[in-house]
Amino acid sequence: MSTYATHPEAREIVFDFLEGYDVLGAFWMTVKLTVLSALGSLVWGTLLAAMRVSPVPLMRGFGTAYVNIVRNIPLTVIIVFASLGLSDIFGMTMGAADDFDAQSFRLAVLGFVVYTAAFVCEAIRSGINTVPVGQAEAARAIGLTFRQILGNIILPQAFRSVIGPLANVLIALTKNTTVAAAIGVAEAALLMKEMIENEAQTLAIGAVFALGFVVLTLPTGLILGWLSKRLAVKR
């Protein structure tokens, strides 16, 4: 039996660099960023997808322009602009004028929603394109409006066919939350940077945080992958 296994104090020495740091709290912040940003992105991305297939040219043009522009802007630029531009220049406080941490968190969520919604939109639009055109034509023939066709016929089938792509967007969003460190949000990447600066265990610190992100993203991919197969539209 190894010395490490028989001496609990050895394990304490190996992980003593974690003392004094709220690693779980940092990952909890990452989870909150991911969940709130994912919900906002799903709502805004669905609206953008509806605009992109809308019969109104102005709405189609806006949706197309938004997606093409936002997808080609680095996420870091969007997050920094949310902090420096919206907050410092335009005075947007997101309801937290006296709490810098809360303000930075909310602005980060806004930035992630703005960015990720473009990818959600394209995933949903690809699902819309899998629905047979004949279904929409039949619905129009019986007098349904565009909103009724989209909400009752097209989107339910589209969502079922794009669970897999949306899972990939969610996993990417989880990893992208590390960019929030650029504006001082106390999530995992910011704490990792602080620990590397203060401790001499660079490889161990990197391994701990890498494992943390694997724990967050791997179950998400497996569960949503299973759900995608379970709810796949049979044609």
Shape: globular
Distance between the termini: 58 Å
How many DSSP-defined strands?
A: 0
Which residues form runs of ≥5 with pLDDT under 50?
1-5
Q: Helix share of residues?
A: over 70%
Determine the structural class based on helices, strands and strand pairing.
mainly alpha
Radius of gyration: 22 Å
Major sheet summary line:
none
Mean pLDDT across all amino acids: 83
Query: What's the SSE pattern?
Result: HHHHHHHHHHH
Share of residues in strands: under 5%
**How many helices?**
11
Family: Belongs to the binding-protein-dependent transport system permease family. HisMQ subfamily.
Keywords: Amino-acid transport, Cell membrane, Membrane, Transmembrane, Transmembrane helix, Transport
Pfam family, one: BPD_transp_1
InterPro entries: AA_ABC_transptr_permease_3TM, ArtM/GltK/GlnP/TcyL/YhdX-like, MetI-like, MetI-like_sf
Characterise this structure.
There is one protein chain. Helix 3 packs antiparallel against helix 4, helix 3 (23-52) packs antiparallel against helix 10 (188-198) and helix 6 crosses helix 8. 76% of the residues lie in helices and 0% in strands. With 235 residues, the protein is an all-alpha fold. It has 11 helices and no strands. Residues 27-224 form the ABC transmembrane type-1 domain. InterPro entries: AA_ABC_transptr_permease_3TM (IPR010065), ArtM/GltK/GlnP/TcyL/YhdX-like (IPR043429), MetI-like (IPR000515), MetI-like_sf (IPR035906). This is Amino acid ABC transporter permease.
